[in-house]
Design goal:
Helices cover about 50% and strands about 10% of the residues. The protein is mainly α and about 220 residues long. Among the domains are: about 30 residues; about 100 residues, Arc Repressor Mutant, subunit A. A three-stranded antiparallel β-sheet has the order 3-4-5, with no helix packed on it. The protein has a two-stranded antiparallel sheet with strand order 1-2. Helix 4 crosses helix 5. The N and C termini lie far apart (about 80 Å). Bound molecules: iron/sulfur cluster. Iron/sulfur cluster (SF4) binds next to loops.
Length: about 220
């Protein structure tokens, strides 16, 4: 085979060679970009996958094995919410589902003994929902085997940076959607100390210390 130096190739042939090289480069770059995009999970994909895996945390516990996701989510909300937020209306608002769907789910949970329904001591017209002792225990068991928290601990700073960034995304989405924030009581602008004890400036009532780490329907950012 005889190799002809590039300078000796005719001008027309040189242009053809350069055009083919450009074309090949363009195809390779485009293919690479397409492949990279499809091989990367978006944040939306990651959160959606984690939410699915999060459900396994609960269904792995025998007491919750046969419960549909909406009922598990309602129970977990009642596990995390404070004494101002355990009403059927707050559950509906938090889950963002229709009143009918949530009412039906709560009724089934009550029939199976997962929750009880009681009138509010201060206002008998209002209904409050409470987890039964066995549901509380089963939820605590589920949380002991929770995989996301364990994975978070393995991150630099125990995942604090990631937590802050995700919280920021959550707040932006909540504001855009115009929904309540359901934040943690001790970070609320109404949260004060009175005589050394937690106090709510909105309701003018003392807050049980164990409730300061729970989420509240009335939460407002500082
Ligand atoms: S301080 Fe805020 S979050 Fe806490 S109980 Fe009062 S309104 Fe709710």
């Amino acid at each position: 085979m005889i190799l002809i130096p590039f300078e000796m190739v005719s001008i027309r042939y040189k242009i053809t060679l350069i055009t083919i090289t450009d074309l090949v480069n363009t195809v390779v770059i485009r293919y690479h970009l397409l492949f990279t995009a499809s091989a990367t999970m978006s944040l939306f994909d990651i959160i959606e996958r984690l939410a699915n895996l999060q459900l396994h945390t609960f269904t792995a516990v025998p007491a919750f094995r046969n419960l549909p996701p909406v009922q598990i989510r309602a129970l977990y909300y009642l596990f995390r919410c404070n004494h101002y937020s355990n009403s059927p209306g707050a559950v509906t608002e938090y889950l963002g589902l229709t009143k009918g769907t949530v009412s039906q789910s709560l009724r089934k949970l009550e029939e199976q003994g997962f929750i009880t329904r009681e009138s509010d001591v201060k206002d008998k017209r209002k209904v409050k929902l409470y987890l039964s002792a066995r549901t509380q225990e089963a939820l605590e068991e589920a949380m002991r085997h929770e995989g996301i928290v364990q994975a978070e601990r393995s991150l630099p700073d125990g995942g604090l940076d990631l937590e802050q960034q995700l919280k920021q995304i959550l707040r932006i989405v909540q504001q855009n959607e115009g929904v309540r924030l359901f934040g943690v009581c001790q970070h609320c602008r109404f949260h004060q100390q009175k005589n050394g004890f937690p106090f709510c400036e909105l309701t003018n009532e003392a807050i049980p210390p164990e409730n300061t780490t729970l989420i509240c329907r009335e939460f407002e950012e500082r």
